Amino acid sequence: MEDADALEALSNILERLTENPYDIALHAEHLRIAYASGSDEQIDSALDMTTAFWAVGDEVWLPLINRKLQSANLESADDLLGVLSVFETAEQDYLSIPVLQKHLEFLVDRFEYFASADKRPEELGELFSAEWTRTMIGVVVSQGIGHLSKSHELFDIQRDWELEQLESVPDDEKAPLVERIESMLLERLTQPHSNHEETLQVYSTFTTNHKPADQYESLLVKASKLKAQAVKSYQRHEPLEHSLAMANYSLEGYAYYLATERRKKPDMFVLKTLYERAITEADKRRFFGELGSEEALRSFWTGYLDFLRIQDADEGVLTVTYKRALKSVPTSGEVWARYIRFLESSNPKDVASETSAAYQKAMAVGPLVADVEQLIPVILAREGFEKRRFQSGNTGEDGFTAILDIFTDGISRVRKASSAGDPRLRLEKFYSAICLDLADQAEHALIMWEDTAKHYKSSYLAWTAYADVLIKQHMLDDARKLFRDICMKNLDWPEAMWEAWINFEQLYGSVEDIEDAMDRIERANAHVHARRLKEAEKAGYEAIQLAAEQQAASVPVVQAPVPIQTQALKEQASMDVDAVQQGETSTKRKAEEEILPDKSKKARIEQGPLKLKRDRENCTVFVADLPSGAKEADLAALFKDCGEIREIRMTQLPDALVATVEFQERDSVPAALTKDKKRIHGEEVAVHLAWKSTLYVTNFPQNADDTFIRDLFGKYGTIFDVRWPSKKFKATRRFCYVQYTSPAAAEAALELHGRELETGMPLGVLISNPERKQERTDSSANDREVYVAGLSKFATKADLENLFKTYGAVKEVRMALDNNGRPKGFAFVEFEREDDARAALSANNHEMKKRRIAVTLADTHVRSKTRDPKAEVRNRSVRIRKLPPGTQEGLLHQALKKIAAVKRVEVFADKNEADVELESAAEAGKLLLHSEPIVFNGNTLEVLAEGITGPSTTRSIAPPVGGGMFVPRSAASRPRAGLGSKKRVATISAAASGTSASSATASAEQAHEPAKTQAKGQDDFRKMLLHGGK
């Protein structure tokens, strides 16, 4: 990075950090810029600033520790204390085995250095003496001793150091050391860990060398008994540890592990460290920007704090843990609330000032006070403290005033944080209860609810609470007037208000009052019903329009008809900067394909509507830097003189409002680009061609997913969207489109082009210019790829390259490997040219490593027809329902493959459903029987066994019943084989338990099923899986 650019970038990031120091992403960016500048001073400053505001993991601490060790004089007592202080601070943040190892290595190294020196510096005092070093090593090891799989990496250092000390002392000084080491080894045997056998062997050797021979057998028996209990404990946890490792230590894996442990009798030794491990992993993922990691980290901390409280942990331990938690998640309202309650229960000398100070610190955290859900728990905790003081009589007349002040300030903060406020009215309910039950201040409650009802005009909760207070104060006429006034109002749940009114009149009204209320409610109900009907019609129309546009967006350069009678309606289409590549067509007829006329039918005489060529890529501009209050009308006014607008789509990103504007004609775009730097609501907006901020990315690692791509490219600017290709025709496709909100970000990200994320695989990153579509397609890759089977387990990628390069230029060789990295026996070889791939077929039956190999074209269509009979495909397929609108097949494929091995995904956008083919029937069963709901983009998916129920798919799933083809009678009546072939379907969605097929579908089923066939349930399905389908 150039000096001038580095200084400008540093200046910008420091300015942003000054405004919002509690944004961990800004600190990560600060570190990246500092390292890029190459300035030691800036790097040290960035590291110090990050560690001052946030608890950080070893990704920050290890570089800082290394820099400290390089710059310190390791013979000076002051510098040594400074290094030790850095280690101590790092270990207070999170549990990190690498940091603890580094600390132990430092202690051992400095001890050995000073022990071997001719003269020990007097200024050291007890520092790095044998006893001091022994104590410090014990403290460090104890921090990670509960880590079941890695604690031995710490204990082994301690054990080896102690044994070395034993060998180095004179014989007359060995007795106390022998006793200490024996006690240490026996204690270790009682702790569950992964290398018990090694520990027992060390103890055996130690006993042989340092204990009387006649005691050996009895000591080993005693040690074996101690070990047995620990081994049982480790074996109970080993499956969970293995599952966690197989899940790549995911946050979901930790959450499951913790929940399982909490359901048992909690083991403090294991569970305490498990929480520390989960918190460390969540922080690491948060630092690198993983979605959902902040929420997981907050959840782990609150669970950990509750666990320690329930286990009656020492008050000092709780105090330290609360301070660590607040440094780790300062934006968590639940952690602050727990801390305030902890201060109250621990009863420090000046609990009022301590609580007030904690509350003020929380209110100084910008992201917390800007989030209603984090803000309210803190305010309630403080109000609860003041309420209990008021109840105890220790506050005098000022007690209620303090409650009123906190409530008033809290309501102001909540309404400032969000225009929607708190729909649950938690603060208002709390304050009302105090006014009515404790302080005899009913007039305060009435005033508060009147103000609340006026603020939340459509909230039935606010109005019913207001009415309830009026009734409790026996202000019956006022309550009746309130019910009448709001009867016709547009409330979010008017039925609740009407029911409250009827109940009120039944208790306090006359017959006339009851009938009047019922008449008014009947009129209001009719009004509400009509309004809801209109809203439903509008929503249905919008859903139809959206489904039609999504269907149209799935084909290349759509011929989009614009009927004369609907020109005033704007279709709901999502912008697709790059059209679907050639060769990616499904078996469905596309909208633009010509329908050949049936000669047996009369030709239609009327002329169809004129079809206009739609060119989204060259007709769309991207508008960024929009002010928060901008509307579609503002954009329509801005571009009104540029040409006819087809569609305006606005999108609210986490930190920006952006829009796409598509014109009917390409010629309108140059005029639209002149609107760059024009103002909307007094703020300049940026306008550019949409494709100029879009990147075509290919050749990334095969296991890369949406999170990986967003993490890799997110550091260059704000990402608007990442679009993934469908894998339904080619499972090995590896490209995607990354669209930024500005062309500058896309150009900056071009530096990734050619970077090798895996050895021999340079990343491809290009601007997604629509004029270069053929340069960016892999649609013909099947024709350029051969499938090689029958490989020896000793065959390597180099062997294949050497063989096939004789037929032409090889683009890529992909060998299938098992979980242990060993070849599975087949591979794919992709050539640069189709002719070379065909020439390579002559390598069929070639001998390689004493095995004859088979070489065929890697045509997935041909293989699927010849190798996968329909019944087999149906056995390993499932149907996914309740997909969110606009689901990308690539993203759904990524989400499902975390549960089971997915082969193909095909989304039906008009039905919000998908057909998923898995690698085997067992994998399909794994998806169907998944114990937890599958949530995708906020929707809980419904998973059904594939069969003849449900909407038809593009793949034939049954023999034809009628038509021109002869079908044996038995083919039409034979019961269907495969998963879920009966009417009853299995879902994992809680909401799907009542789902039933439509009558039309049921009729179709009856046409293909024997009348006496009994439907199978989940137990039969599980038996079929367990016994191989028998």
From TrEMBL:
<dbReference type="GO" id="GO:0003723">
    <property type="term" value="F:RNA binding"/>
</dbReference>
<feature type="domain" description="RRM">
    <location>
        <begin position="784"/>
        <end position="860"/>
    </location>
</feature>
<keyword id="KW-0677">Repeat</keyword>
<dbReference type="GO" id="GO:0005688">
    <property type="term" value="C:U6 snRNP"/>
</dbReference>
<dbReference type="InterPro" id="IPR035979">
    <property type="entry name" value="RBD_domain_sf"/>
</dbReference>
<protein>
    <recommendedName>
        <fullName>U4/U6 snRNA-associated-splicing factor PRP24</fullName>
    </recommendedName>
</protein>
<dbReference type="InterPro" id="IPR034397">
    <property type="entry name" value="Prp24_RRM1"/>
</dbReference>
<keyword id="KW-0694">RNA-binding</keyword>
<dbReference type="InterPro" id="IPR012677">
    <property type="entry name" value="Nucleotide-bd_a/b_plait_sf"/>
</dbReference>
<dbReference type="InterPro" id="IPR000504">
    <property type="entry name" value="RRM_dom"/>
</dbReference>
<keyword id="KW-0507">mRNA processing</keyword>
<feature type="domain" description="RRM">
    <location>
        <begin position="619"/>
        <end position="692"/>
    </location>
</feature>
<dbReference type="InterPro" id="IPR011990">
    <property type="entry name" value="TPR-like_helical_dom_sf"/>
</dbReference>
<dbReference type="GO" id="GO:0008380">
    <property type="term" value="P:RNA splicing"/>
</dbReference>
<feature type="compositionally biased region" description="Low complexity">
    <location>
        <begin position="990"/>
        <end position="1004"/>
    </location>
</feature>
<comment type="function">
    <text>Functions as a recycling factor of the spliceosome, a machinery that forms on each precursor-messenger RNA (pre-mRNA) and catalyzes the removal of introns. Chaperones the re-annealing of U4 and U6 snRNAs (small nuclear RNAs) released from previous rounds of splicing, an initial step in reforming the U4/U6-U5 tri-snRNP (small nuclear ribonucleoprotein) that can reassemble into another spliceosome complex; this step involves binding U6 and facilitating the unwinding of the U6 internal stem loop, followed by base-pairing of U6 to U4.</text>
</comment>
<keyword id="KW-0508">mRNA splicing</keyword>
<keyword id="KW-0539">Nucleus</keyword>
<dbReference type="Pfam" id="PF00076">
    <property type="entry name" value="RRM_1"/>
</dbReference>
<dbReference type="GO" id="GO:0006397">
    <property type="term" value="P:mRNA processing"/>
</dbReference>
<feature type="compositionally biased region" description="Basic and acidic residues">
    <location>
        <begin position="1006"/>
        <end position="1023"/>
    </location>
</feature>
<feature type="region of interest" description="Disordered">
    <location>
        <begin position="990"/>
        <end position="1030"/>
    </location>
</feature>
<feature type="domain" description="RRM">
    <location>
        <begin position="693"/>
        <end position="770"/>
    </location>
</feature>
